[in-house]
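Cont'd.
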Amino acid sequence: MKGSEGLLATAAAAGVDVCFANPGTTEIPLVEAFDQVPEVRAVLGLSEGVVTGAADGYGRMTGRPALTLLHLGPGFANGIANLHNARRARTPIVNLIGEHASWHQSADAPLHSDIESLAKPVSGWVGRTSSAAAASGEFAEAYLAALRNHSPATLIAAADHMWSQGGVPATAPAAPQRPQGDEQQIAEVAKVLAAGRRPVLLLGGQVVESPEGIRTAVRIAAAAGGAVLAERGSARVERGPGIPPVPVLPYFPEAVTEALQGYSDLVLVGARTPVSFFGYKGQPSHPLPSGMAVHELADSDADALHALAALAERTGSAAEEPPHAERPEVVAPAGPLDADAIAAAIVLTQPENSIIVNEGVSSSASYPAIADAAPAHCELSQTGGAIGMGMPVATGAAIARPDRPVINLQADGSAAYTVQALWTQARESLNVTTVICSNSRYRILDHELQRAGIDDPGAAAASMTSLADPAVDWLSVARGFGVEAVRVTTGEDLLKALGRAHGEHGPHLVEAVL
Amino acid sequence: MKGSEGLLATAAAAGVDVCFANPGTTEIPLVEAFDQVPEVRAVLGLSEGVVTGAADGYGRMTGRPALTLLHLGPGFANGIANLHNARRARTPIVNLIGEHASWHQSADAPLHSDIESLAKPVSGWVGRTSSAAAASGEFAEAYLAALRNHSPATLIAAADHMWSQGGVPATAPAAPQRPQGDEQQIAEVAKVLAAGRRPVLLLGGQVVESPEGIRTAVRIAAAAGGAVLAERGSARVERGPGIPPVPVLPYFPEAVTEALQGYSDLVLVGARTPVSFFGYKGQPSHPLPSGMAVHELADSDADALHALAALAERTGSAAEEPPHAERPEVVAPAGPLDADAIAAAIVLTQPENSIIVNEGVSSSASYPAIADAAPAHCELSQTGGAIGMGMPVATGAAIARPDRPVINLQADGSAAYTVQALWTQARESLNVTTVICSNSRYRILDHELQRAGIDDPGAAAASMTSLADPAVDWLSVARGFGVEAVRVTTGEDLLKALGRAHGEHGPHLVEAVL
């Protein structure tokens, strides 16, 4: 058995069933092994940003690592941006990077580079194979690290270790358990909630992925006379008729401070202390109202759901009914489109159990603001700010859950980064409907210029935010990559186009012109 | 004056006239400054692979650094693959990475990452700004490092250093001179050439960029009873009626050994000792015939042209006529297309002074094999093996030399990496004609599977080399990004399509179906 087969058999035994790949010469032994280990399905992406973003989408939907197969340092580098987002989403992924044969690495061949230096910023674990026999054990270590660290782990596999005989499957590693929350932390939070002040629970991570977790948090907050909010940029948020609405923190720091105003204590439940996305003149990094005390229910690696259940017991709110919450009313959009109209059209047409992948950027906030009116669904959002995640994450989510429709609310500027993902959607006949918010601008940069006091930018600055000359023809691009596409300019037509797309198998793209 | 204006004014004073950019929020102060310092023209790319590849193409054509403007670690990461190629091409580039405000960096905001770790593998110099006042001097340091190291240099500019007042333009740095070659090394090579053995001069770097350098090398070799070869993957090779043909070393190691067989001594003239692109079972890293002695005329940073001229003096070959060399005869292609037919069509139609950007991958070798039949031109090739360089490098070369037609011989698999470059070609009305070698395969991987002994790959392995289902419709993709396109399947039609493209202003794409 070759080293590559031993490694892949170990992956299969651990339950890995998908490898998103863009292989080159150094990965040929692993490419061969796909036919020996059919439990691992290889899915090709036309560039590595697609590959790593798809692995992120897969991992967010399953909690299990997909493999990626990437070509040396430069191939890996193309996937770093979406691994950055995956790291922020706390998604387990195992990257396999094919490396030159061990004896060839010192020759400084053209593709040689310092792979560790590239990998470390986006990997909780980085290692190298040491032989054909040891490679499967080294894979098992990477696999466990990805689960334990909730992060990409990167194994650099020398071509000769992969092509040589002597591979042996290692014992399949069992998924590690999250450590339970610290009783003292829980007790302290219980004391805060009992103090008769006005606390707010900030939910994130595991908690917003769990309908029961959300309900528990809402009960606890109600009993304490407080409220709940969700942190921005969650990997996955569950919503639906049985789940209480949880408003999401806004984007700009002034608005975050305002949203938290009037609360006495901030209780982090699977969330981090809010941090401003960027540093702005005169704004603090952590935009909290002055005097607000911050408490953490459980460490970031601990089981926040368990801690939350324990907190509910302590505060006597375990058995209470969550308070009734109004759901937004959504009116069918008519006439010219804007971000709100697009969000409304999605909410009104999305099938039960849809997966919403939201990389709307300047149009992103419109959807979660009304999404509690939609049927049961989950939303995967921008976690790390590296644009170009939407189409790849949608692709991976659809591979992970072929039984669920995927809807990708997608800004046009970001779409242009990784539009190649449409080809994988076509090749794999994935049920992904992409809605391009086509404003032919980097609209967010217009806002940022205004914030910097530039209301009337000069021609050079203005040209850096415009995608209008020429406007990208998204229909042509989509068809070029094999995906059916239509263009709409009104709410009425958008509703019709979405209805049609959801009724047909396979990928669709709707260019919604703003 | 803001820090950003001081920095950009320093760049302008040093002669920087182009900044390839894909800015985000942390680069807003530099975006604003483009209107204050109009000497630096900002050129937008839809993704950072376009931006850095364009800077490589610009630098290869001018010898001067262009700026890139990139957004934090993830934005930079998207540009690493083409910076890897630039490093191998020894292209000077100055990367400006906008970083969070200095006081915001410790907050671990979503886009925060270890930028240095990402930058070091592709940068000869990495630094950070320290204040608005110091930033221009720090830029000057980066600029000089790019020229001195023949490599990208990366300056990480904190947003607050850029937006704060207190910027001052620094003294414009003067371009450093290359050190002269070592007299003793030159004398030793002269002795080798006088020994009556059969030497071969391997040309690369500066030497193949210089018609006079090539002529001198050919004279020296002829006088010594030897020959000349060019290393593979040169940044720029000049060719034309007045320049003697220099065969290029082949790709696979067995063929390299065969090409060098029968020569006694290998003299490196601006080139490196040949290294196998990948490590193969039973093949050495350096595929030289046994017993071949290797001599270096000048260190890699030294002035190889000066050393060559000195060598010509010493060997008494300075005044000789270069021996007459036959030029290939090229027959007009007819009927179905293959790689040779595409190369022939390009050679027969390319206008005088064309710039050929060759990322043909499995079709790459056909062009240089017959290019000595073409009018005067230069060829920029794949230096580092990170695919996706062709379209961006062609874009940057056209920005650098608007007076010269650019022809991009482009593999389809690689084109899919950075096809967004077409948009910049359309936006800037660049005279680039892209010829897609459309075989709907990663053909090079088919070869590599065969070399690994897999003549009949299984379905899973075969699917990793096929781009056929669906085949990318390059006409639609090109039109989507604003570029006129036609599809041809015969030599006759390809000749016509190229003739038409060269006769019209602006970018064109020809999909040549193999």
